[in-house]
Amino acid sequence: MSNPASSGALAGVKVLELGTLIAGPLCARMLGEFGADVVKVETPPDATGKGGDPLRTWRILHEGTSLWWSVQARNKQSIALDLKSEAGREIARALALEADIVVENFRPGVLEKWGLGYEQLKALNPSCVMVRLSGYGQTGPMAGEPGFGAVGESMGGIRYVSGFADRPPVRIGISIGDAIAALHGVNGALVALHHRNATGGRARYARGADGKPQWQQGGTGQMVDVALYEAVFNLMESLVPEYDVAGFVRERTGGALPGIVPSNTYTTGDGDNIVIAGNGDAIFKRLMQAIGRDDLASDPQLATNDGRVPRTQEIDTAIQAWCSQHAIDDALAVLKAADVPVSKIFSVADMMRDPQFLARQMFEQHALADGTPIKLPAVVPKLSATPGATRWLGPRLGEHTEEVLRGLGYDEDRIAALVAAFPTFRARMAIREIGGALALPPADIERLARLSDGWSSADAVEDEIHRMPGGEQRLADPRVVAWIEGHAFLSAIRLPKASALTRQPGGM
Question: pLDDT above 70 covers what percent of the chain?
Answer without folding.
Answer: 81
